[in-house]
Write a sequence for this structure.
């Protein structure tokens, strides 16, 4: 019978403190994903050359030198842009997925006690059903 | 805070407490496993159709089990929600104890709680002893009498606060603890340790907390920073530093340090640091701790993701031959670091770098200052205290780019924390359990015996040695204070712990043991003996030398002899003396010279007597050095390494005041009674400053020897001559006639016993040697020497007389 003692405590937790905990968790995970994909940093450095690889031009002007540096540096920026953009998109996609899944989980959370209760009831009915021999 | 108020706070976690009552933590985890197992079995039945008739029932059972499985997970979630909650004002374990405390007996319910019995185990106090205490005591603390003495800095009521309040109110319990060597400080220490472990457990377990999530490294950071090929050639990441490997367990020690480094590095401009340290390792530990925190991702955003690289200054200088080569190569390194934008450059020994580059005529100060002026470089430079004063302090062009941090030495509490952490690590690897008293003993011994550069590492070594010395198979061994003492005794050869019988005898009879070698000087011997007994009984500060004395008095009155006797009594060998003639250290560079000599000699033998002869002749700077040595038990040598002097008996001898002593003797005054006026005169003459004299355990006055004492010395010396003659079986008989004669011709107040000794060598030994050569005495002879009126000695065969 002791077991029943816990039920009122549980139910009150489930609909009060648990809810605020879940919101806190949601914030933590969003914060984590945002940082994990370095979205802010990647946006800020979107157009910089990849790994800062670039060619320094010599002081004396030389047309060939000028154009080769221009091309290399442009390429490095292009590569940097491509890779960064890819990860930004991935990050945002994961954020959206996470928000969607968490919202589903949140809705289920409200129904969970009923869900468990119905599992017990349905399971019990099935369990005691006399098999046809 | 009253008990009923604490009981109110219990409501904050009450549901979790009820849950623990109904299904304990262990029970819940077993149930979860059983359910999973059953689900697995039923699922196999269902899939393989092993019981076709009961298909429907099996499905029903699975439904129910699945419901239970979810339910138990939800219960666990509820427990976690309260247990790991960050905004409760009572520790869960305290709430548990308070909730369980039924009758009017606070102490009993604490001791019977999970936490309470664990605390007692840590203190090596068995269940039986606790039970005996509970049954035999007279007073009980009721809920009304009990109050929690709050700690203002932390609003959460912790186990430490609760348990400290218990010994505050329950005096009987406090004295029970004292019987096991647990005073209020030890009690607090053990509780803090356990509390710390619990906190660490919570931090480790709660992976969903933001500070834990932040430790997962993010991706893509690297792409925005430049490459550092040049630095990779002449440097290495700090993770390759040996201290970095061992820093993880000590991070909590460096919390403050990392914070101050971060604060400076986060500044917009001029974010360079100069670490000035007395201990070599400590500065690198600070930097390593910072790097570790960066690795863990728990730093301010400005420092986040930075790479900490150590520049190998020797390697870059060695591989260049010319000034211009070195300059341009260094420039390349610095420019690349600036462009990379995410490197913190560490220069391990800036003064050394400056000096060695100077050999190629390269001005590092200037070069570095130029690079730093761009404000795109972040440098942490390390300098030893002395070297800093010599090379960098005056170079304002360079120092203005740095913020200086002077690193303080690690304190006692910090070392205790290191050792606590190490105990956790060792306990997780080996079947051992450290009592808290053993931990304190490790710290105490390390401070006393192994205090040099890296005290914390020495303490860790000692822990491991103790653990492996007790481990036998898989059976859990409890490490007590005595186990530590045994290991320390084996390492140092110095008896530890309870004073053993043999040593007790020695200490109790110290006066008579010393008197076997030293004639007269009763007061001197008495005060030395009692000072040493004090030290051995553990009454003195373990951070100071074992003993320290200033011996005052003229030549030849037993100062050196006393020193030898002490070496023999305490270190088992009268030659365990490091003798330094201080008259050699009076010139301008005396201090440096002495430090080199001392550091070499003390390193060689850490345990023994350090004899500083003619101490008054050394320079004032040297006196200052000894102010520190006598006070703190160590000094830092010219290379910046710490030399431990805590295991030495330091004896300084001095003739200062001898003239006054002779005057008193001429006036027929008792010299010993005039000690104060002699000391006053010495201070007045500026020979020693009062603060130096006060640092010694004792200033001991040796008075000139009277005739009676001199004749005893003559007897002792003839005895020792006989010992040397023993293998030839020749014996010189000590007659009163001979003794009086020798005292009469040998007496010289200025040189005391030394003059008599010389006389014996010149007269007696010469006579015996001559006679042996002439064949006047043979093996097995017993002879007497008879003084003649003309000053000569006649050899007679004693038996014939």
């Amino acid at each position: 019978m002791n077991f029943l003692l816990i039920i009122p405590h549980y139910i009150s937790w489930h609909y009060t403190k648990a809810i605020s905990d879940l919101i806190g968790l949601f914030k933590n995970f969003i914060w984590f994903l945002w940082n994990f994909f370095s979205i802010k940093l990647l946006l800020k450095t979107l157009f910089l050359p990849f790994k800062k690889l670039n060619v320094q031009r010599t002081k004396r002007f030389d047309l060939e030198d000028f154009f080769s540096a221009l091309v290399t540096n442009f390429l490095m920026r292009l590569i940097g842009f491509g890779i960064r953009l890819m990860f930004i998109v991935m990050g945002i996609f994961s954020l959206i997925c996470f928000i969607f899944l968490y919202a589903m989980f949140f809705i289920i959370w409200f129904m969970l006690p009923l869900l468990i209760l119905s599992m017990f009831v349905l399971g019990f009915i099935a369990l005691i059903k006399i098999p046809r021999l | 805070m009253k008990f009923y108020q604490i009981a109110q706070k219990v409501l904050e976690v009450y549901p979790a407490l009820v849950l623990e009552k109904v299904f304990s933590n262990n029970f819940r985890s077993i149930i979860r496993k059983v359910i999973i197992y059953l689900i697995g079995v039923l699922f196999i039945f269902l899939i393989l159709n092993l019981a076709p008739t009961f298909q429907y029932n099996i499905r029903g059972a699975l439904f129910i089990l699945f419901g239970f499985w979810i339910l138990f997970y939800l219960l666990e979630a509820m427990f976690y929600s309260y247990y790991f909650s960050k905004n409760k004002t009572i520790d869960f374990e305290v709430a548990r104890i308070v909730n369980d405390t039924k009758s009017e007996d606070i102490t009993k319910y604490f001791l019977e709680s999970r936490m309470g019995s664990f605390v007692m185990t840590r203190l090596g106090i068995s269940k039986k002893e606790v039970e005996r205490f509970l049954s035999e005591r007279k007073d009980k603390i009721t809920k009304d009498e009990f109050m929690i003495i709050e700690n203002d800095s932390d609003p959460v009521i912790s186990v430490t606060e609760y348990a400290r309040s218990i010994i505050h109110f329950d005096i009987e319990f406090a004295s029970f603890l004292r019987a096991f060597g647990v005073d209020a400080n030890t009690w607090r220490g053990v509780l803090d340790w356990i509390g710390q472990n619990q906190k660490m457990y919570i931090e480790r377990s709660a992976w969903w907390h933001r500070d834990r999530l932040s430790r997962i490294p993010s991706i893509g950071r690297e792409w925005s920073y430049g490459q550092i090929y040049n630095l990779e050639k002449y440097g290495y990441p700090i993770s390759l530093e040996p201290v970095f490997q061992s820093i993880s367990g000590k991070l909590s020690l460096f919390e403050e340090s990392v914070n101050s480094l971060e604060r400076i590095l986060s500044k917009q401009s001029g974010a360079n640091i100069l670490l000035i340290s007395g201990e070599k390792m400590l500065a690198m530990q600070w930097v390593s701790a910072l790097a570790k925190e960066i690795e863990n991702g728990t730093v301010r955003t400005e420092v986040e993701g930075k790479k900490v690289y150590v520049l190998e200054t020797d390697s870059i200088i060695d591989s260049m031959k010319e000034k211009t080569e070195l300059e341009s190569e260094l420039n390349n390194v610095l420019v690349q670091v600036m462009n990379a934008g995410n490197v913190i450059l560490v220069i391990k020994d800036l003064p050394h770098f400056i000096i060695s580059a100077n050999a190629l005529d390269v001005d590092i100060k200037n070069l570095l200052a130029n690079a730093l002026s761009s404000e795109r470089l972040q440098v942490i430079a390390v300098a030893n205290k002395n070297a800093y004063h010599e090379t960098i302090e005056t170079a304002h062009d360079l120092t203005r780019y740095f913020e200086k941090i002077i690193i303080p030495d690690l304190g006692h509490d910090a070392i205790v924390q290191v050792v606590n952490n190490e105990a956790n690590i060792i306990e997780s690897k080996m079947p051992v359990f450290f009592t808290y008293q053993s931990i304190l003993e490790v710290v105490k011994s390390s401070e006393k015996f192994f205090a040099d550069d890296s005290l914390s590492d020495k303490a860790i070594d000692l822990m491991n040695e103790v653990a492996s010395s007790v481990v036998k198979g898989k059976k859990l061994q409890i490490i007590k204070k005595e186990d530590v003492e045994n290991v320390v005794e084996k390492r140092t050869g110095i008896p530890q712990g309870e004073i053993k019988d043999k040593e007790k005898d020695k200490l109790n009879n110290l006066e008579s043991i010393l008197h076997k070698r030293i004639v007269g000087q009763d007061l001197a011997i008495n005060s030395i003996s009692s000072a040493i007994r004090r030290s051995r009984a553990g009454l003195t500060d373990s951070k100071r030398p074992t003993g320290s004395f200033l011996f005052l008095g003229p030549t030849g009155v037993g100062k050196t002899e006393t020193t030898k006797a002490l070496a023999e009594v305490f270190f088992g060998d009268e030659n365990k003396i490091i003798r330094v003639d201080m008259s050699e250290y009076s010139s301008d560079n005396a201090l440096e010279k002495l430090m080199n000599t001392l550091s070499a000699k003390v390193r060689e033998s850490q345990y023994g007597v350090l004899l500083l002869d003619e101490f008054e002749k050394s320079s004032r700077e040297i006196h200052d050095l000894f102010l520190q040595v006598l006070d703190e038990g160590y000094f830092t040598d010219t290379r910046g390494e710490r030399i431990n002097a805590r295991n030495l008996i330091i004896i300084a001898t001095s003739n200062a005041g001898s003239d006054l002593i002779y005057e008193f003797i001429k006036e027929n005054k008792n010299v010993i009674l005039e000690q104060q006026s002699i000391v006053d005169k010495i201070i007045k003459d500026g020979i020693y400053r009062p603060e130096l004299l006060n640092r010694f355990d004792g200033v001991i006055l040796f008075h000139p020897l009277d005739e009676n004492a001199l004749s005893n010395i003559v007897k002792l010396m003839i005895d020792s001559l006989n010992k040397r003659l023993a293998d030839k079986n020749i014996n010189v008989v000590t007659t009163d006639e001979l003794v009086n004669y020798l005292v009469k011709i040998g007496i010289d107040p200025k040189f005391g016993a030394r003059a008599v000794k010389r006389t014996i060598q010149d007269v007696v030994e010469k006579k015996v040697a001559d006679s042996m050569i002439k064949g006047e005495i043979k093996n097995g002879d017993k002879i007497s020497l008879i003084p003649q009126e003309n000053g000569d000695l006649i050899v007679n065969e004693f038996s014939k007389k």
